[in-house]
Design a protein that fits this description.
164 residues, alpha/beta, Rossmann fold, 3 domains, three-stranded antiparallel β-sheet, three-stranded parallel β-sheet, 16% strand, globular
Length: 164
């Protein structure tokens, strides 16, 4: 959480703390100190919850429980999980943007490396998994590019979009 204080902090790491504190307010986001404040405020609309745990068994228990709930979508990696409305996915976002910009879905390319990219892979005309993606993600892709450390996104864009 960000402090409600407007005092400049003694930090010289390149971050503009005042900008960081005011940015969410410009876009309708609210600061809160206690989760109860967020829950009790009926004007809030929650788009996504993000959870992180280092306990693999606890994460599995949470995901098992969440998968039983209607109207939510869960995407996770080994450390974190996202909980969203069932229609909030990268696949739906890609479909919306393609429609908005009048681009046929078969002419779209999706590049990803995590499980939350799978819905986007299922929507895109070409699904490109990063070389460092899990086997589960790779099996949903059309092709596999280099890893993040090997500039896989640039390689895929050059090869599959620009045709170089």
């Amino acid at each position: 959480m960000f402090s409600s204080s407007t005092r400049k902090h003694d930090v010289d790491d390149g971050f503009d703390l005042e900008l960081i504190k005011t940015f969410p307010l410009e876009y309708g986001h609210k600061h809160f100190k206690q989760i109860e404040d967020l829950i009790k405020d009926e004007t809030n609309t929650i788009q996504k919850f993000f959870g992180i745990t280092l306990d693999v068994h606890q994460k599995e228990r949470i995901e098992t429980f969440l998968h039983k709930l209607d109207d939510i979508s869960i995407a996770s990696t080994s450390l974190y999980f996202d909980i969203m409305h069932r229609h909030a996915s990268k696949g739906n976002a890609l479909s919306y943007m393609a429609t908005y910009f009048e681009i046929p879905l078969e002419d779209t390319v999706a590049i990803g490396d995590e499980s939350n990219d799978i819905s986007m892979f299922q929507t895109a005309g070409l699904a490109v998994a990063m070389g460092n993606a899990s086997d589960e993600v790779k099996k949903h892709s059309d092709v596999i590019t280099l890893t993040n450390d090997e500039n896989g996104v640039a390689f895929a864009l050059n090869k599959y979009v620009l045709g170089n």
